[in-house]
């Protein structure tokens, strides 16, 4: 009997129990719960629309910011020719906003991906191995959190010189402690679960436990946080652009468009130059927040309606 047990157990390492919250992001019920969420549906539609607009911008409206100017059409209100009006250089605001969406999405997605990757690794290491590694990572996280996020981003961009790449790095660094703390909290909870302890008792290595058990069980909550963080990153990128520390001209950027209108003194006399960029920033943040709420409802079985 002991010999039979020894030959059978290695082929039956425990898998993730389906009853734990946030455990089965690919289950059909998850999609059903997500689609039942009004916020999720609206957020998904808005997000897809924004992504399609960003991808199709060069195809549907080729634009060269250095040459596409008409000084005779400066600050024209919205018309049939210029649906969103023109700015102080005679550029079509609709085209600028269109390309501004592309820039904002690029910054937000890459910066969140950077913060998620680093924060996920740090959170897994500190939460699973604990000890001196947890202390060091905890100190680094506390140091980053001690600065207001926008001030930390400003400091990083100022040191690195304002450009698109430095903005991505700065906003990504701001996101690192968020994902580190979230991942650590999840791992600390999961490492006490029976399926993890059973894998340890059966001799599974730490790397295998993290890869095959803890990481899959953590991904759903991390995906929800990543979606919400894209909205936050959009605001931070727009704030840096408004301060002149974001993507530099001639690349259109929504925050920089707002700054140009206020610095030029025509924000009130020509309100369309600030109205449409501001609305698009709001719409982008709203889209990812609603999508994150829908994903949370879909991936958490506790939210299932009875």
Question: What would you say this structure looks like, in words?
Answer:
- By secondary structure, the protein is an all-alpha fold.
- It contains 11 helices and no strands.
- It has helices at 2-8, 28-36, 38-60, 93-129, 131-145, 149-160, 164-190, 194-201, 206-242, 254-264, 272-299.
- Helix 3 (38-60) crosses helix 11 (272-299) and helix 8 crosses helix 9 (206-242).
User: What pattern of helices and strands is seen along the backbone?
Assistant: HHHHHHHHHHH
Task: Report Rg.
Answer: 24 Å
Main beta sheet: strand number and arrangement? none
Instruction: State which percent range the strand residues make up.
Output: under 5%
- Globally, the shape reads elongated
What percent of residues adopt helix (DSSP H or I)?
55-70%
Uncertain parts: 1-16
Q: Treating each run of at least 4 consecutive H or I residues as one helix, how many helices?
A: 11
For the record, give the distance between the C-alpha atoms at the N and C termini, rounded to a whole number: 46 Å
- The counted number of beta strands is 0
Structural class determined from secondary elements: mainly alpha
Mean pLDDT: 83
Question: Can you tag this structure with a few keywords?
Answer:
306 residues, mainly alpha, 11 helices, 70% helix, 0% strand, disordered N terminus
